[in-house]
């Protein structure tokens, strides 16, 4: 099963790999060739591959030369023959009725390809903006013993505790809190309002988006005989390895003992809760509003949809895929399995059960009809 969700999160993962190549194609005026675009979206150029474009536009706009758009909806076919776009992203199987002005880039899915261009273009602009950020703005606070790398940026009203280690090209935006003894690797960006608790370790090339909380106390309470709960001290820490992305308002609890680990290349969406002592493997992607209870272990290259709930102390094998709103309460049976439903189970069994579920009204009518016959 390869739903739109799985295509989307796969795209978000590979986007970070193509970004560097795309950025290298830009000149100062943000021009790029059709061949450069084709390389990014895995397309084939029909026309002059050396033509340059520098803006994105809709096919039904009065766009000037130098623009690129896309054709995905048959309702807009007439614009193919009137548009002044320099280039159009178009499906490989579309047959033109007559000659057109723009060059074509043939792709499997024009809408997805254009989305890649939109987001990548946005990131290039953002990256250029971030590189201009240097120095320590005032008012801000930097504690004793802080080690500062080259090209450091600390925004206004930020707080950096004592004995913090900041690598080269680290960017800390305004109103951010960095606790004592935190380590932040080279080229990591921490956006406004994020909170990084004491002793957290963040690797190189990481992105922490606005409002994220890394290293807060885990949810640990011991029930007492009188019906109250006693707080269990959370003495561990959080470790983010290299190339990790944490979405806005996502929270990652520190471990009771040891560490909560987010491994290399993993991408977390907005509004995710990661419990204490959770371990997430390499290159895993998790969509928004997922909650992962304490001490759960998630393997490498796992894909988890939105609003998924994972119980504590379970193990998710490598390459598992979990559909949106699934509830996983026990270990999946094998690596690479796709799970749906709540409680979640294998996709083939889920689909068979769903067919039966949809037939329940008709089955009820048949049972009631049989009961009437038996009573007569």
Tell me the CATH superfamily of the largest domain.
Hexapeptide repeat proteins
What fraction strand? 25-35%
Low-confidence residue ranges: 1-29
CATH-scheme architecture of the largest domain: 3 Solenoid
What would you note in describing this structure?
With 376 residues, this protein is an alpha/beta fold. 21% of the residues lie in helices and 27% in strands. The chain has five helices and 40 strands. The strands form six sheets. The chain has a twelve-stranded mixed β-sheet with strand order 8-11-14-17-20-25-28-31-34-37-39-40. A ten-stranded parallel β-sheet has the order 9-12-15-18-21-26-29-32-35-38, with no helix packed on it. Helix 1 crosses helix 3. It is flat and about 80 Å long. It starts with a helix and ends with a helix.
Helix-strand layout with pairing:
Elements: H1 4-24, E1 32-33, H2 34-41, E2 44-46, E3 52-53, E4 55-56, E5 67-71, E6 87-91, E7 103-107, H3 110-131, E8 135-136, E9 141-142, E10 147-148, E11 153-154, E12 159-160, E13 165-166, E14 171-172, E15 177-178, E16 183-184, E17 189-190, E18 195-196, E19 201-202, E20 207-208, E21 213-216, E22 221-223, E23 229-231, E24 237-240, E25 245-246, E26 251-253, E27 259-262, E28 267-268, E29 273-274, E30 279-280, E31 285-286, E32 291-292, E33 297-298, E34 303-304, E35 309-310, E36 315-316, E37 321-322, E38 327-328, E39 338-340, E40 345-346, H4 347-358, H5 360-375
Parallel strand pairs: 4-5, 5-6, 6-7, 8-11, 9-12, 10-13, 11-14, 12-15, 13-16, 14-17, 15-18, 16-19, 17-20, 18-21, 19-24, 20-25, 21-26, 24-27, 25-28, 26-29, 27-30, 28-31, 29-32, 30-33, 31-34, 32-35, 33-36, 34-37, 35-38, 37-39
Antiparallel strand pairs: 1-3, 2-7, 22-23, 39-40
Helix pairs in contact: 1-3
């Amino acid at each position: 099963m390869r739903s739109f969700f799985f295509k989307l999160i796969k795209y978000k993962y590979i986007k970070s790999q193509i970004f560097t190549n795309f950025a290298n194609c830009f000149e100062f005026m943000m021009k790029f060739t059709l061949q450069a675009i084709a390389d990014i979206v895995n397309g084939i150029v029909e026309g002059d591959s050396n033509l340059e474009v520098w803006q994105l536009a809709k096919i039904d706009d009065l766009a000037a030369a130098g623009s690129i758009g896309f054709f995905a909806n048959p309702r807009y076919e007439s614009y193919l023959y009137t548009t002044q776009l320099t280039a159009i992203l178009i499906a490989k199987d579309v047959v033109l009725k007559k000659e057109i002005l723009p060059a074509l880039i043939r792709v499997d899915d024009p809408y997805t390809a254009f989305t890649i261009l939109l987001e990548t273009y946005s990131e290039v602009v953002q990256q250029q903006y971030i590189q201009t950020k240097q120095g320590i703005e005032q008012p801000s606070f930097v504690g004793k013993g802080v080690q500062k790398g080259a090209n450091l940026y600390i925004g206004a009203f930020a707080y950096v505790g004592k004995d913090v280690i900041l690598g080269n090209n680290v960017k800390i935006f305004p109103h951010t809190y960095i606790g004592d003894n935190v380590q932040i690797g080279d080229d990591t960006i921490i956006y406004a309002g994020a909170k990084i608790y004491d002793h957290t370790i963040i690797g190189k090339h990481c992105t922490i988006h606005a409002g994220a909380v890394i290293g807060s106390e885990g949810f640990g309470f011991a029930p007492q005989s009188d019906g109250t709960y006693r707080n269990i001290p959370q003495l561990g820490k959080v470790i983010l390895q290299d190339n990790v992305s944490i979405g806005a308002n996502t929270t990652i609890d520190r471990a009771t003992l040891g560490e909560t680990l987010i491994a290399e290349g993993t991408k977390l969406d907005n509004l995710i809760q990661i419990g204490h002592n959770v371990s997430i493997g390499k290159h895993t992607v998790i969509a928004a509003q997922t909650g992962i209870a304490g001490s759960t272990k998630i393997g490498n290259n796992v894909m988890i949809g939105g609003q998924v709930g994972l119980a504590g102390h379970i193990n998710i094998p490598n390459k598992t895929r979990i559909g949106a709103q699934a509830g996983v309460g026990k270990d999946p049976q094998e690596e690479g399995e796709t799970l749906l439903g709540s409680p979640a189970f294998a996709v083939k069994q889920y689909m068979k059960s769903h067919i039966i579920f949809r037939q329940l009204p008709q089955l009820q009518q048949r049972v009631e009809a049989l009961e009437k016959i038996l009573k007569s």
